TrEMBL record:
Residues 12-390 form the Major facilitator superfamily (MFS) profile domain. Keywords: Membrane, Transmembrane, Transmembrane helix. The chain crosses the membrane at residues 21-41, 79-107, 168-189, 219-238, 250-268, 280-296, 302-317, 338-360, 366-386. The keyword Membrane applies. Pfam families: MFS_1. CDD domains: MFS_MJ1317_like (cd17370). This is MFS transporter. It comes from Ideonella oryzae. InterPro entries: MFS, MFS_dom, MFS_trans_sf.
Amino acid sequence: MSHRQRQRLHPDVLKLGMVSFLTDVSSEMIFAVFAVFFTTVAGASSALLGLIEGLADFSASSLNYLAGWMSDRSGRRKWFAIAGYAFSTSAKIILLASSSIAALSVFRVIERLGKGFRGPPRDAWLASLSDKKSRGFAFGVHKALDKTGAVIGPLVAYGLLSWLGESASTYATLFWVAFVPAVISVLVLTRIPDQPGVVHEREGVRRNWHQLTPAFKRFLLPSAVFALAYFSLGFILLKAHAVGFGMTETVLLYALFNTTCVVAAPWVGWLGDRIGRTRIVLLGYAVYAGLTLWLVFASSRWEIVVVFAVYGIFYAIDESQSKAFIADLEPERRATAVGVYNFVVGVMYLPASLIAGALWAVAPSAAFAASTLLSVVAIGTFLLMVPEPAQSA
């Protein structure tokens, strides 16, 4: 990418990326050990773990529309983002006070509420810091910093457990250490100047929805279809285990996925700015379709390694460039649009995982084949529904 491209990156993009980095270091330190701690140390059942994880996924998307509407109604970005980050940070105090099953369950669910509340205002804020020619690069850089935290957090947790040993006191120490970067992230965020949006004071939820552009609403349909194809990464980890990877090696595969995402995110953002956001979103769908089709037949370790590396590239496209695309389609009500998008795909993830789980019980290849088919349908739907302005971007 050119020096001129790097020059167009607003310094506050890096600051917001640092906030996400610190938050992810904190959260991923905890989530890397949460399942084991919840079931072995606290003594919860695996069935309860599944229920809590499902509730956590739902809570992460439940407040998206509300947060986006409130942010667009007031025109404020910063203080809604601060509220979301501060809520997630405050939830971690529960871990410092108690390690009971009830406390851990409450923590896991309400911590994700903070994520759902901060996302739309922050993404709208991020979009306002870049013009259309560099927006994809800005979102890509932010995602790279965000996922860097997801790489470092588990490594810090691994280091603490290796150094101090696996015990209840070590986990308590880990939770205290994780709390520190979460607090720092909120402090850093308070020092970044706000970028207010257009105020829509008299706009209720119903009118707010009707004011969203038809182009954005058409984009929701292929997004929902693709979300049905987009099942949990856990199924790909199961495939790796079936091919012959041990537990420790699957952790390394997860690290490979995150690392590839970190490296690829700025580059796919730059590519989206060059070739157009429509093509980069379609590329993400196509890459995912190719990966799932490959997984139908993959039977060797080297194939799985390549799949995880390419999956990181897909994730970089899907997680950052879809938000940049939405910002192009919805110039005034960006927080609402991101909130609606996150809510729609978040709701679809639940049946996606249920379908994948049911098909996996029949045959793992059936789950991947169904995902490939749905991805192709999503591509066709996108080509039919995509707005003309996006096609010429």
